[in-house]
């Protein structure tokens, strides 16, 4: 059973969803076309498209995972290592501690486990 809902990249379709108010979707699409026309920039989703995907996700676990990936920029492997203790929601500015998978080229040995703090705003 396939419950795939086709999403069209049209401003009219997106404007009917209760998402992304005030976003000029036509301008965002033209800017993306311009940015990806050279092939140097990978294809990416616009905020209204991500909102539409989240709107149609019935499984709350998938919804939460996808929203976390989108809002923090983390990789799936980094998300798999998250625990409730990774989130600090009590401070003035809530944030998440992400144990980075990314290995950067630098002099000397890189730290075994590099942590980056990403604000949740």
UniProtKB/TrEMBL annotation:
Entry keywords, A to Z: DNA recombination
Sample GO molecular function, one term: DNA binding
PROSITE patterns associated with the record: TYR_RECOMBINASE
Ranges where the Tyr recombinase domain occurs: 40-121
UniProt record, GO biological process: DNA integration; DNA recombination
Signal peptide bounds: none
Keyword Nucleus carried by entry: no
Protein name in the entry: Site-specific integrase
Organism encoding this protein: Shigella dysenteriae
